[in-house]
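Justification of resources, computational component.

The compute hours requested in this renewal are based largely on the per-chain cost of generating structure records like the one below. Each record pairs the submitted sequence with a full structure-token output. That output is archived, and it is also reused by downstream analysis tasks.
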Amino acid sequence: MKILIIAFLIFIIVTLITMKIGIPSDGNDTLGFPFTFYKKIGGKRFPIPENLVETQMSYLVIDFIVSGILAFGIFNLHEKFNRRI
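The structure output for this chain reads:
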């Protein structure tokens, strides 16, 4: 359970740090690291795209799995160093 909480926190923090908000300046909003799982197209475009929002659920799952692997590593390192003390 601790690993899941750590993974969720890592996912949220990394997503907030790496997100790009570009709509106010005719750009795109993107979320996701290492894979972009959400993209909102902004700005003036011609022709107007059919989908202004792209969501890749598979990339969202992959990003969360990467966060889980990082959390597992951090948790194991923490446990290893606590045993030495």
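Residues 2-69 form one domain. The chain is about 55% helix and 10% strand.
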